[in-house]
Amino acid sequence: MKLFILLSLVIPLFHSFSAELLEQENRVIDIYKDSVSSVVNVSNIRLANSFFYGTIEVPQGTGTGFVWDDEGHIVTNFHVVNGGNSFVVTFHNDKLQYKAKVVGIAPNSDIAVLKLEKTPKNLKPIKIGESKSLQVGQMALALGNPYGFDHSISSGIISALGRKIDGIGNFKIYDMIQTDAAINQGNSGGPLLNSSGEVIGVNTMIVSRSGSSAGLGFAVPVDTVKKIVPQLIKHGKIIRPALWVGILSEEIQKRFTDVKGAALRYVDPDGPAGRAGLQGMMKDKFGRIFLGDVITKINGKEISSGDDLYHEIGKYKINEKVTIEYLREGKKKKTNVKLRALQ
């Protein structure tokens, strides 16, 4: 009898204790509730010719995006919209399908912006944070649609910062955020959130031998996104400074020299580099090919490849002057260049 009375007191107390959520759990729940209406499913639809039915719409894949502003702009990955002719966007707990069109793409950063043709009544832009002050070890939450399981959330930490990852545009994407928050197919284009529910990155890719999450997810930092998206909305493309040069591939450069740097394949004579006296590869009257100038530093920052050059020049503004150090026939030289918009 005494045992029964004791258990009757202890068991309810145990259930009450186990039902209480930890502070961190409550925080994740609040972030999900606050953010989920701003995260969307993006369906990529391609037009195809059918022998029996003529032109038909073929679903090409799905990804994730998030609401950027009150005007109905949706941010996602370039590879989510690549190859599509039309796009359908759906929201959490909304049975309607909303058509959208691409207004701008930035393949080298794997970012794209869609614009809804018609917006929901309660359109809610997501909270935008910053990525410059991120620290390894802080909480990271990935919100998206993995394998078609709409509006799923996964949690983890920031595993590393400043990663260089091969992107879809044949350029490396710099300063990528590495996270162990589970990211799978369908998460692409979705937000990576901090513990305040702010976007700190755009989930872009995973590194995995199996094709499933292996704790190696990567996101484009939101500080990069904040530079790109307004230009895509306004101009439909990125207007960035450039030298107006072509760069040798690393494989071909190694045939000519072991020097690290960005070897110039050609230089537009009317461009910034050409006007500053830089030279590309040349051929003499006997058909012999000679290596052009090799850029080694921009404003004192070492340049080891064409990717480095592209990334470093992108940090500056149009009409801003930079000091370029380069090698010509083994001799160190220096010149000042006024950057101009890439055309």
Keywords summarizing the entry:
single chain; 22 strands; six-stranded antiparallel barrel; 343 residues; disordered N terminus; 7 helices; alpha+beta; six-stranded antiparallel beta barrel
Quick structural summary:
This protein has helices spanning 2-19, 23-35, 78-81, 222-235, 250-256, 272-275, 306-313; strands at 39-50, 54-67, 73-76, 86-91, 98-106, 111-116, 139-144, 152-166, 172-179, 191-193, 199-206, 217-221, 241-242, 245-247, 262-267, 282-283, 289-290, 294-298, 301-302, 321-328, 331-338, 340-341. The chain is of the alpha+beta class.
Mean of residue pLDDT? 88
Give the strand line-up of the largest sheet: 1-2-3-6-5-4
Poorly predicted regions: 1-18
Main beta-sheet annotation: 6 strands, antiparallel, barrel
How would you characterize this protein structure?
It is a single chain. The protein is an alpha+beta fold. It contains 7 helices and 22 strands. It has helices at residues 2-19, 23-35, 78-81, 222-235, 250-256, 272-275, 306-313, and strands spanning 39-50, 54-67, 73-76, 86-91, 98-106, 111-116, 139-144, 152-166, 172-179, 191-193, 199-206, 217-221, 241-242, 245-247, 262-267, 282-283, 289-290, 294-298, 301-302, 321-328, 331-338, 340-341. The strands form 5 sheets. It has a 6-stranded antiparallel beta barrel with strand order 1-2-3-6-5-4. Strands 7-8-9-12-11-10 form a 6-stranded antiparallel beta barrel. Strands 14, 15, 18, 19, 20 and 21 form a 6-stranded antiparallel β-sheet that branches. The protein is elongated. The chain starts with a helix and ends with a strand. Residues 1-18 have low confidence and may be disordered.
